[in-house]
Structure formats: C-alpha cells, structure tokens
Design a protein that fits this description.
Elements: E1 2-8, H1 18-22, E2 28-31, E3 34-37, E4 58-64, H2 70-91, E5 106-107, H3 121-127, E6 140-141, E7 159-164, H4 167-170, H5 174-179, E8 183-187, H6 194-208, E9 212-218, H7 224-237, E10 243-248, E11 254-256
Parallel strand pairs: 7-8, 7-9, 9-10
Antiparallel strand pairs: 1-4, 2-3, 5-6, 10-11
Protein name: 4Fe-4S binding domain-containing protein
Domain 4Fe-4S ferredoxin-type: 4-33, 34-63
Length: 257
C-alpha cells in the first residue's frame, strides 16, 4: 500500500538519538551511530520524531510500504521492557530487596552563615581562599533523576535544578551559581531515555508543587532532549512557575540564560 512514512538521511544524522526516544513505537534504532528505521510495520506515519531532530535528517514521504502493525509494535515494546527488567534484576545487589542503600533519600543541611561572609561572590571567595576544597552546595541525595523517588520529602515546594550531566564538569562555579539553594536532579539526554525522564518529571512536578525550575544544558544538539523533557513535563503537569533555561558552552562559558 502507498502511505506516509518517515525517511532518514543518514548523512545528516548526528547520532543524538532524540528521534529514538521520541518514537513511542520503537521504529527507530541506532545502527553504527546513525538513526535507522528498523521496519516499515513499526512506523505509524504520524511523525512524532520529526520535530525532535536538530539537523533535519528526518522527513515524511509517501511510498509503497507495509501497513502499520500495532500488534507487532506492542509485542516489540513488551519484549524490550522484559529485557530491561531482566537487566535491572541481574544488577540488583543480593539480599537487598529495596535496592542499593545509596538510593536512600536524605536531605543535606548546609550552614552558609559566617561572621565574615556576605552573599556576594567576592566575600565567598575571600572566606574560602585558604581552603583547598571548595564547599559543596549539594542539598540532597541521590541526585540521579533515575534514582530520585518522586515523593522524596525534599522535593516539596523546592527550587528544582535539572542539569545535564556534563554541565557540572564544564562550568567551574556550578555549585555556587546553580546548585546552591536548589534540589539537584541530573541525567544525560543522549545516553538515557528521555521519554522516561519526561514521565518521571511530570510525576515529580504534579506531586510536589515546585517553587521554580531551572534547566542547564550543554550547547551540543543532543543535549536538547533534557530541555524538551522538562518542558513537556511542565505542560503535562500543568505547572506554571518561574522557569530558567541555561546553555553552557563546551569550553565552560555561559552562553545563554
């Protein structure tokens, strides 16, 4: 039959994987670092993946193609979920029915009062000039978005920072300028499942009524997934709060936000 279906230009594909996570049917996979349509029967022709592609490598065409098969799609998704569940089971520590002890939620109290310091950057640097280690501003554990429980008490009414992993390594004063005073959730939009991020953030936003939301991302295209996940989660949760989006260059400079 002649129908609408996606076409991927591998020459334009940068390997960001945003289309993979955007395709709910699992029709796209990465093969040798490039996005590829695995089978015509998995593509519904609706084009959810099109707006996610930062390079314009995907377009919608009409051609002779096998019809979309929802039953095969559901079977494929079920098999994938079973494989993922098996991996989780194999990696869980023996004798720990509740998982890794390091996942236990806890708040961390920081004392920012000092007889010589004000809130300015200059006084901060003066106070810690003689210290080899800059003070941590982390206020909770765990920090990985995949590990944080949506009902962790420290999330309630919090200023939330959602940070792409690399931003903290690229920007020198990340603790002082971004983590301080916020609950920090981190993840990698290139290596992790952005659809899962979106669903989890939606739940977090719905349950905890955040005071504000800040997103930090790198300038590279594949980092756009974390911004998309946060925005979609805010829409789904119907959360209207102060929102800040920060872009950091690969050389550590603050480019936007």
């Amino acid at each position: 039959m002649n129908r609408k279906i996606i076409e991927i230009n591998e020459a334009l594909c940068n390997g960001c994987e945003l289309c993979v996570t955007a395709c709910h049917e699992g029709a796209i996979e990465m093969v040798d670092g490039k996005a590829r349509l695995i089978s015509d029967v998995y593509c519904d022709g609706l084009g959810d993946c099109l707006p996610e592609c930062p390079t314009g490598a995907i377009k919608m065409i009409e051609r002779e193609a096998a019809p979309y098969d929802e039953a095969l799609v559901m079977q494929r998704i079920s098999e994938r979920e079973a494989r993922e569940a098996a991996v989780v089971k194999e990696t869980a520590p023996a004798g720990s029915p509740c998982g890794c002890p390091g996942m236990a939620a806890k708040a961390i109290q920081r004392d920012h009062t000092t007889s010589t310091a004000s809130s300015s950057h200059e006084s901060y640097e003066q106070v810690h000039a003689d210290h080899h280690q800059a003070p941590s501003e982390l206020s909770q554990w765990p920090v990985q978005l995949n590990l944080v429980h949506p009902q962790a008490p420290y999330l309630q009414g919090a200023d939330i920072l959602i940070a792409a992993d690399c931003t903290a390594y690229a920007y020198g004063d990340f603790h002082r300028d971004f983590i301080k005073g916020k609950i920090t959730l981190i993840g990698c939009p290139k290596l992790d499942d952005n659809q899962h991020y979106q669903e989890k953030l939606t739940e977090i936003f719905r349950l905890n009524n955040p005071k504000s939301i800040t997103v930090t991302r790198m300038q590279v295209p594949c980092c756009g997934g974390i911004v998309s996940a946060v925005r979609q989660a805010m829409l789904a949760a119907q959360v209207i709060v102060p929102y800040r989006e920060v872009t950091i260059g690969t050389d550590g400079t603050l480019l936007q936000g």
